[in-house]
Amino acid sequence: MTIGVLKEPAFETRVSLIAETIAPLTRKGIQVMVEAGAGIKAWCSDADYEKAGCKISSISEIISQSDILLRIHSPEVSTLDGQSGKVFIGVYQPLYNGDLVKQFKSKNATVFSLDMLPRTTRAQSMDVLSSQANIAGYKAVITAADFYPRYFPMFMTAAGSIAPAKVLILGAGVAGLQAIATARRMGAVVEVFDTRPAVKEEVMSLGAKFVEVEGAADASKAGGYAVEQTEEYKQKQQQRIADAIAKADIVVTTAQIPGKKAPVLITNAMLDKMRNGSVVMDLAAATGGNTEVTRNNETVQYKGVSIIGNSNLQASMPYDASKLYGKNVVNFLQLMTDKDGKLNLNWEDDLVKGSCVTHNGEVIHERVKALAS
Questions:
Q1: 14 catalytic per annotation
Q2: C-alpha to C-alpha distance for 253 and 288, rounded to whole angstroms
Q3: 130 is catalytic
Q4: Hey, which bits of 82-218 come out as E strands?
Q5: pTM here?
Q6: pLDDT digits (tens, 9 = 90+) for 89-111
Q7: What stretches in the chain show pLDDT beneath 70?
Q8: One of 31, 119, 319, 320 is an active-site residue; which one?
């Protein structure tokens, strides 16, 4: 069997596999082909791949000769002209990209989107959302500190005392928990809001204060995402968030709902109460953002507050992000290959079936079908 690693779009610095994650595949006799220059932005050269036993090739050769094609972002569907039945693995966000799903379907492609992987204990070693969110949470705080015109920790000097920064984190999923840990290590005072009371213990164990709002809808089966809340709860939520934001210097927001626009947690009226120089890091920017003024991949200045919209912060640490992503992919590939390294799609496996979007010219994922009909 042959696996092809394709170059990502110009804006992306990561790559599906770096050289040091290839070994488990080559040991099974799997040939790995890599598009020339695919790993350059992730600090992995063509020579590194060749040393690991890969073959450097052109995109046309890879697509024609590979059984499985790896690309984090969706490929240009036009590159599949004349090709049929290819297997793709990446993060294609099919709940937001109905047109892309239709195009994959038209090319008879078998598409596995790892953001659709069931969030179970067995899937943890393949969970690309968690591995990448962990990096994003860390880098969100580092980026905010770079923009923030004051210190994070408390300093007592002969010239006077500096109060510690006050950080508010909205959402205690993987990104939020890493943001808490990073902000605490940097000396900030941290408060955290989440609709799931179950995360209170984790938040407090990291040294942060948990802001509670009673009456939240059960989010235990939402795979770490936010869920729709009642209007009564939303009003209580907004008031508690407004009170916390008025005191915060840095706000990190992470709330997203699968297949829907991100909930607006921070209104302009709340931003009006933040002091000059404050920073909002919005990690939900790609799906609309958690503020009213967020723009994806842009920094907006609103009355002295910097709102940084970035849903791809993990790409700012491309080597480690690619390394972790690649290990997730290799673990997932173990489910799709037999001991001799041959392709074996086991549709009885809940992880294989649960992450597959299209197969045999049909949309087979139940949640995606309505979008691609």
A1: no
A2: 12
A3: yes
A4: 87-90, 110-113, 155-157, 160-162, 166-170, 189-193, 209-211
A5: 0.89
A6: 999 999 888 888 988 888 889 99
A7: 81-82, 215-229, 371-373
A8: 119
